[in-house]
Design a protein that fits this description.
four-stranded mixed beta sheet, 3 helices
Length: about 130
C-alpha cells in the first residue's frame, strides 16, 4: 500500500485550492472543470479537495471541520515555521498556536484554513527514533 492522497471536504473547491496555493506555496495538480474536485501537488502524495455538495449527492453526510475540535490535522514541514505562519495568516489562515519549541526538538505552530481544518506547520523531525 501507498498513501495516494488525503481528501478534505470543503464548501468551495476552487477557493480552497487557491487558498492553499497562496498560504502554503503548493501547486495545483488537477481541478475538475465542474469545480467539485481538485488536487494539489505535495510530493509523493496529493492533498485533494471534494465539495461537500458532491459528497451529499453521493449519499455521504460530510461535516464541516472545526479547528477547536479537530478530528485530524494536516502537517507541512518547513525549516522556517515563523515565516510559514506569517505567509499563511497573510493569505487568510487563522492563527491557532504561535510557533513553540517542543521537547523532542521540533518547532510547531498551528493555523486553521478557511474551512476550519487544522494545519500544523513544523520543522522536520531529526535524529533517530
Amino acid at each position: 500500500m501507498q498513501l495516494g492522497y488525503t481528501i478534505l471536504y470543503v464548501e468551495d473547491v476552487k477557493r480552497s485550492v487557491e487558498f492553499y496555493q497562496q498560504a502554503f506555496g503548493l501547486a495545483a495538480k488537477f481541478v475538475h472543470e465542474e469545480g467539485d474536485f481538485g488536487e494539489l501537488d505535495t510530493g509523493s502524495t496529493s492533498l485533494a479537495f471534494s465539495s461537500r455538495e458532491l459528497m451529499r449527492r453521493l449519499g455521504k453526510q460530510p461535516q464541516a471541520a472545526r479547528a477547536d475540535a479537530p478530528c485530524f490535522e494536516i502537517a507541512f514541514t518547513t525549516p522556517d515555521v515563523a515565516a510559514a505562519v506569517e505567509r499563511a495568516v497573510n493569505a487568510g489562515a487563522v492563527l491557532v498556536q504561535a510557533p513553540q519549541a517542543m521537547p523532542w526538538g521540533q518547532t510547531v505552530a498551528y493555523v486553521s484554513d478557511r474551512d476550519g481544518f487544522l494545519v500544523e506547520l513544523c520543522t522536520p523531525m531529526t535524529g533517530s527514533p
